[in-house]
Write a structure and sequence with these properties.
Elements: E1 2-8, E2 13-20, E3 23-27, H1 34-42, E4 46-51, H2 63-70, E5 73-76, E6 87-88, E7 94-97, E8 100-106, E9 115-120, E10 126-132, H3 153-168, E11 176-179, E12 197-198, H4 199-205, H5 215-223, H6 232-242, H7 247-254, E13 257-258, H8 260-269, E14 273-276, H9 280-285, E15 292-293, H10 300-307, E16 315-318, H11 324-332, E17 339-343, H12 346-352, E18 361-363, H13 365-374, E19 378-381, H14 385-390, E20 391-393, E21 397-398, H15 404-407, E22 417-420, H16 425-436, E23 442-445, H17 448-452, E24 459-461
Parallel strand pairs: 3-4, 4-5, 5-6, 10-11, 13-17, 14-15, 14-16, 16-17, 18-23, 19-21, 19-22, 22-23
Antiparallel strand pairs: 1-2, 2-3, 7-8, 8-9, 9-10, 11-12, 20-24
Helix pairs in contact: 3-5, 7-11
Length: about 475
């Protein structure tokens, strides 16, 4: 028996390759599926099942493409309805894979069709669970993402309580837990940085698995502090349910080199968004007017999904050399399939063609402190709510990047704003969006709050209202 976790850091997502006696099951595959085919071919094995733990909301799964390539059966949990052929498994159904058995445990709560796959080894022993978004390390799945459900999030949270206690917590402590996500995913609140654990440890340490916890307490704690889901979640879930264009087609179209003239013509005539995915320092130094920065070296795909509201938006790419295919691939993972091509030769080619570029003013934390100590400055803190509440600059305006499209009317086009995040990535994203929307008086603070804390500027800690 062979189990391999294929973890993708940008999405904080774990797919799984399971092999026994020449037969393979892939659990929750990513959009680009050739990697799974290659592993199976290398091992002289055949992919028999594609096991989906639920309709994923945070990424587009590769199940449809992989089934077409391999002839494998796509398996979903009870009640799943799709626009393509699947096997909707029954609760307790056993799937044979070589010398091992995979038992389907229906665990609704995160979504109605959610399942946990229990792997029973050659000796008939419960070996591991592939828990999808039902159970994470340190947390459980959020219960507010069901597609077109008449049930409330409280109803689903109550279902999740029952699923955990009746289907998962009854298993032995030594059962290995393989979750679908780790820290960084928006599918839970308190996910561990670890990506593999054991059930006994989760029973001892996971707040949602406390033995003395009532259902009412569970519902309250699971829902407490849960942020609204990113806008692309529902769109990705529907793509996973209805199907999508083949990834190879998307890659062939999107990974097309364009001359500056072709690039500019498409930007003008197709109303295409120019997305610059280079490092933030390169964008600050020079960029195409009205382009948006979201760098590949950060949490690229989730930020694209959160900030580009039209999933069918035509996109033109400005990329580091040799990174065009990666950018198209990572866009497609969250359903942005309408990439038209990339600027061949990058900014240098653009300038050689005599076309205009712009810069973004960026200053060090020390320079910012000098200015702030002698002037009243307008400061935008674009970090997440929890980061801001933990500690922030006095007089800083909280302007979370997650909600920038909804908060645009909270800033004044005639004022100069100093923008910072934690380390310098998100502030440039925010500044680029504001700049493209006509806000010209923007100054980025390089190094973000981490650098600002090393200066003498006063900060404010969050004080819980109950202690006042």
């Amino acid at each position: 028996m062979k189990i391999e976790q294929l973890y993708t850091g940008c999405l904080a997502q774990g797919a799984y390759y399971i092999e026994s006696d020449g037969e393979v099951a892939i659990i929750d595959p990513l959009r680009e599926t050739q990697q799974y085919v290659d592993i199976a071919n290398k091992n002289n094995a055949k992919i028999k099942y594609i096991l989906e733990t639920h309709f994923h909301a945070d990424f587009v799964s590769g199940h449809v493409d992989l089934a077409k390539k391999t002839g494998a059966t796509i398996v979903f949990g009870p009640g799943a309805s799709t626009d393509y052929a699947i096997h909707s498994a029954k609760d307790g159904e056993e799937l044979k894979l070589g010398k091992i058995t995979i038992k389907v445990l229906h665990t609704p709560g995160h979504t109605l069709e959610s399942v946990t796959y229990l792997l029973i080894d050659e000796d008939g022993k419960d070996h591991a669970i592939f828990s999808g978004d039902t159970l994470f390390l340190g947390d459980v799945g959020r219960p507010d993402l069901a597609i077109k459900s008449d049930l409330t999030k409280e109803d689903l949270a109550a279902m999740l309580y029952d699923s955990l206690r009746n289907k998962i917590m009854t298993l032995s402590d030594d059962v290995i837990v393989y979750p679908a996500h780790g820290a960084g995913s928006a599918c839970g609140k308190n996910l561990s940085k670890e990506t593999v654990g054991v059930l006994g440890e989760q029973k001892r340490t996971n707040y949602a698995l406390r033995a003395d916890m009532t259902k009412a307490e569970f519902v309250k704690e699971v829902l407490d502090g849960i942020a609204p889901p990113p806008q692309y979640f529902a769109k990705n879930a529907m793509m996973n349910k209805m199907g999508y264009d083949a990834f190879d087609t998307i890659l062939n179209t999107g990974d097309t080199p364009l001359t500056p003239e072709e690039f500019e013509a498409l930007a003008n005539h197709e109303s295409a968004l120019i997305l610059d995915v280079r490092h933030q320092d390169d964008f600050v130094k020079e960029h195409i007017p009205n382009s948006i920065f979201i760098g590949l070296k950060g949490q690229f795909a989730p930020w694209v999904g959160a900030l580009i509201t039209d999933i069918k938006q035509p996109i033109l790419l400005v990329v580091p050399e040799g990174k065009s295919a990666e950018a198209v691939t990572r866009l497609s993972r969250v359903g942005y399939d309408n990439t038209l091509g990339y600027l061949e030769g990058g900014i240098d080619a653009w300038k050689k063609a005599g076309k205009e570029t712009e810069t973004l003013e960026s200053i060090s934390a020390e320079e910012f402190a000098n200015r702030a100590n002698s002037n009243d400055l307008n400061i935008l803190d674009v970090r997440k709510d929890g980061e801001y509440k933990s500690m922030h600059l006095e007089n800083a305006q909280h302007f979370a990047l997650d909600y920038i499209n909804e908060q645009m009317n909270e800033v004044d086009r005639d004022k100069t704003y100093y923008v910072h995040c934690a380390g310098g990535y998100r502030s440039v994203i925010a500044a680029s969006i504001l700049k493209a929307r006509g806000f010209q008086n923007l100054v980025d603070i390089a190094g973000g709050f981490g650098a600002i804390q090393k200066t003498d500027l006063p900060t404010t800690d969050f004080v819980c209202p109950s202690t006042l």
